[in-house]
Amino acid sequence: MSAEKRDICIFLTEMTTMEKYDVLIVGAATTGSWFAREVAKRGFKVLVIEKQERENVSRNYDIFHMQKKEMEKFGYPIPERTDDDYAFEFDGGSYYSAYGNYPKRAHNEVIGMHKHRYILRLNDDAVKAGAKIIYGAAFDGFLFDENGRISGAKYKTAEGEEEALASIVADCSGIPSVARTALPDGINAENFEISPRDLFYVILRYIRYPDGHEKVIHTDSYLQYKVWTAPQADEKGAILGVGANLCFDYAEEMFREFRKNVPWCSYDVQKIEYGKTPYRRPPYSFVADGFIAMGDAACLTKPNNGEGCTSSLYQAEIAVDVISKALNEGGYLTEERLWSINKRYIEVQGKAFAGTMALLTGAAYLNCEENEYFFKNDIIFSKSIMAGFGKGISIPPAEIERTLRLITAGVATGKIRVELIRHVMKAFKNSTEIKALYSEFPETPEGFDVWRGRANELWEKIGSMADNCDETLIDRMERRKAGKITSVAAD
């Protein structure tokens, strides 16, 4: 026996003493917990490693919310008013123009929850289904078999380094994407790090209005500034949020612009929370031999608002089906056997979100006056389009023709800049082309290289939302940071 083969045998012998799982999940938040529960319910052996201790899980911010119909679709538990994770509920809200006019109403029942408590509920549901969760366990690399294929993972705890074998490792670790970014180079599942320019920076002000102020019972959104207000647990208060690409300082500059242009009553700030969510295209392929990326680690957020809890489950639901069948069939879970997850997700949600991201990247070019004109004339921001905003924007050819006609009329009356026509036409063209290309996603890894090359070229044309940030606001932000602006906007 050669020395190489002897080492392999020793390696395999050592590995066989480890506990073997069907699925090893990195991260125990919304996607990881749900995936663990669903796979365990089907009789498979599931291990979840979560880097935080139980008492610190999902404490990055207090309140988050989900649409009730999507919670029902995926079997998320819906808290009762008496439950400690319940915060509030409301029925949709309205979208407003840059100066607070022309509201477009959207109806969606929404449940607000205390995130830490709710995630622990999801964790406990996964455990009840048969999954095992180890808290304070940080992913520390993959295990590989004699063929160089992923066969499990290493993780660190307070007691030291541990190892576990698994048929598949699922990265549900969020923005850090600790497992996906540890993948070897040269495979179809991309190991890129989510860069600062690929993030959406969110600032949440928990505010309290003066006595006598009307109770906040729905959301109001101002798309020009990516500002919204929503209920919170305090019935006399609200959450006043802002989100933006580029950085937190730019988000604050957007908030100042909002306060300057939209009348608002006084309020007291109770606390401020900061968060981030991915805002970029997902990896072209989620899978590799013995691996899948899910949730924020796969950048599966809604491009219109950055929400990713339930949008991630459209992929996770497909993954449960494909992986369960593969595990029941036996044998190694190769990229080829997992590939249909990519194709099915694109058809269910992926191509719609890609088209929306391309369209919104172009729409970010609007100034306040143009936004006002668009709202007034139901251009893109129509009630019908706003009603289905969370599913991806779909604009029929007749609506595109109408949009271009109204924009041309706006140019003639001085309401619209001439160059906006070019930006809007480019956005429509890019949106149509990227959706068409995603419809052609290959059924198998064969032909993927050619498809990926075409996709790279098109996304290069589309660019990033960060590329379209307001130059005036960027300049103001830089001058403020340099101390050249000393005035403090109202909080």
Low confidence ranges: 5-13
Strand element count: 16
- Give the CATH architecture of the largest domain: 3-Layer(bba) Sandwich
Name of the CATH class of the largest domain = Alpha Beta
Number of domains: 3
Average pLDDT reading: 90
Which structural class should the secondary elements be placed in?
alpha/beta
Q: Give the helix proportion (percent range).
A: 25-40%
CATH topology grouping of the largest domain: FAD/NAD(P)-binding domain
Topology, pairings included?
Layout (H helix, E strand, L loop, with lengths): L2 H14 L3 E7 L3 H12 L4 E5 L12 E5 H7 L11 E11 L7 E11 H15 L2 E4 L2 E7 L5 E8 L2 E12 L27 E10 L10 E4 L4 E4 L6 E9 L2 H14 L6 E11 L8 E2 L2 E3 L17 H19 L5 H4 L1 H24 L4 H9 L6 H5 L9 H16 L5 H22 L8 H15 L8 H11 L10
Parallel strand pairs: 1-2, 1-9, 2-6, 4-11, 9-16
Antiparallel strand pairs: 3-5, 4-5, 7-8, 8-9, 10-13, 10-14, 11-12, 12-13, 15-16
Helix pairs in contact: 2-4, 2-6, 5-14, 6-8, 8-12, 11-12, 12-13
Structure explained in plain terms:
The chain is α/β, with parallel strands linked by helices. The protein folds into three domains: 11-88 and 110-194 and 280-338, FAD/NAD(P)-binding domain (3-Layer(bba) Sandwich); 197-279, 2-Layer Sandwich (Alpha-Beta Plaits), CATH 3.30.70; 350-473, no CATH class. The chain has helices at residues 3-16, 30-41, 68-74, 115-129, 248-261, 311-329, 335-338, 340-363, 368-376, 383-387, 397-412, 418-439, 448-462, 471-481, and strands at 20-26, 46-50, 63-67, 86-96, 104-114, 132-135, 138-144, 150-157, 160-171, 199-208, 219-222, 227-230, 237-245, 268-278, 287-288, 291-293. The longest helix is centred in the C-terminal third of the chain and has 24 residues, at 340-363.
